[in-house]
Amino acid sequence: MNIKEFSERVELSSYTLRYYEKIGLLKNIQRNSSGHRVYNIKDLQWMAFVKRLKETAMPLEDILRYAKLREQGSDTVTQRQTLLEQHHENLRLHILQQQIHLAALEDKIDLYKSGKVG
């Protein structure tokens, strides 16, 4: 698929995709005889994973570190696992904090609903 189709499927702009390619996050993109980028299913799967990491607030530098480790092959599995475990813990703590904030907001809303605040 071309960059327009790929961009639509992964819901990222073509500018972002070219940037990811430039910084090494999206590698080995094939080109057709005209020199246009051609993406495949593995590129889709990789971008879905990258997006998930971004959407869960993993810093881009950590995503890049993960990508570089992944590129080095199976010898880096333990390092990649450790990186993901660290992110998992950070995400778990963030969710816990957000749940506390949500409960505080719900308490305040309930207070307003009760009419006890003037």
UniProtKB/TrEMBL annotation:
Residue ranges of domain HTH merR-type in the record: 1-69
Protein name as it appears in the record: Putative MerR family transcriptional regulator
Entry-linked Gene3D superfamilies: 1.10.1660.10
Gene Ontology terms, MF aspect: DNA binding; DNA-binding transcription factor activity
Keyword set includes Lipid metabolism: no
SMART domains recorded: HTH_MERR
Record's keyword terms, sorted: DNA-binding
